[in-house]
Design goal:
By secondary structure, the protein is α+β, with helices and mostly antiparallel strands. It is about 30% helix and about 30% strand.
C-alpha cells in the first residue's frame, strides 16, 4: 500500500499503451483475483486479453487509485475471434509491472 498522497500526472494515452505493450512483451504481467473470476464467467482467455492490448487503444481518462498509488487505464481492442473487449489495467512504473484488473 502506498502512503504518499501526492498524485503524479497520468501517462498520456500513447505512453500508457506503449508501456502496457512493453511490460507485456517483457513478461512483466500479473493479474487480480477478480480478473480470474471475470475471465471464467465471460469465457475470455489470457490470449484474448493479450490480443486486445497488442492491437487496442487507450479509450478513456485513467482512474487514480489512491490505495495503490497508481492509475488504472482502459484499453479497447479485439480478442482472437475479433470480438471487441475492454481490458482494465494498472501500470506500476515503480515496479515495472502491468496488472490486468478486469475485462469486459
Amino acid at each position: 500500500m502506498v502512503v504518499d498522497s501526492k498524485k503524479p500526472p497520468p501517462l498520456s494515452k500513447n505512453e500508457a499503451i506503449n508501456t502496457c505493450r512493453k511490460y507485456l512483451n517483457e513478461g512483466k504481467v500479473t493479474w487480480s483475483p477478480h480478473l480470474k473470476q471475470r475471465m471464467k464467467e465471460r469465457n475470455i482467455s489470457i490470449r484474448d486479453m493479450i490480443n486486445t492490448v497488442e492491437g487496442g487503444t487507450n479509450i478513456k481518462t485513467p482512474e487514480w487509485k489512491e490505495e495503490y498509488g497508481e492509475y488504472n487505464y482502459f484499453i479497447r481492442g479485439k480478442d482472437i475471434e475479433g470480438t471487441e473487449l475492454t481490458v482494465k489495467v494498472a501500470i506500476s512504473e515503480e515496479e515495472e509491472m502491468l496488472t490486468f484488473i478486469t475485462v469486459f
